[in-house]
Specification:
Helix content: 25-40%
Number of strands: 2
Strand content: 5-15%
Order of helices and strands: EHHEHH
Strand order of the largest sheet: 1-2
C-alpha cells in the first residue's frame, strides 16, 4: 500500500510541487506491473496527523524525528539540484 498525502498547494509554506492526483498518475505508471499483479495498491489519503484505531483510542502525541542525515533530505531540492524526478 502506498498512501499519497492530499495536501494543498496554495499554502506558501507548503513544499509540495505536485497535487495528489499527479503523484498517483506518476506512481501508477512506475508501478503498473505490480498494481496489475495485485502487489501494490495506491491510495490518496487526507492530510492528517495520525491514524488511531481500536475501542479505547485515547489521546496521545507522537513525534517522529528522523536521523539528521535523512531529516535534511527534501525531494524538491533533489529534483531541483540533481535534475531527478519521476520517470
Amino acid at each position: 500500500m502506498i498512501a499519497i498525502r492530499d495536501c494543498p498547494l496554495d499554502d506558501p509554506d507548503e513544499e509540495n510541487e505536485y497535487i495528489a492526483e499527479e503523484i498517483m498518475g506518476h506512481l501508477s505508471e512506475e508501478y503498473r506491473d505490480e498494481i496489475l499483479d495485485g502487489k501494490v495498491k495506491l491510495m490518496i489519503m487526507p492530510d492528517i496527523e495520525s491514524i488511531n484505531y481500536g475501542r479505547t483510542v485515547g489521546y496521545e502525541i507522537i513525534e517522529h524525528i528522523p536521523p539528521e542525515d535523512i531529516g535534511e533530505i527534501k525531494g524538491r531540492d533533489l529534483r531541483k539540484h540533481e535534475k531527478i524526478g519521476f520517470r
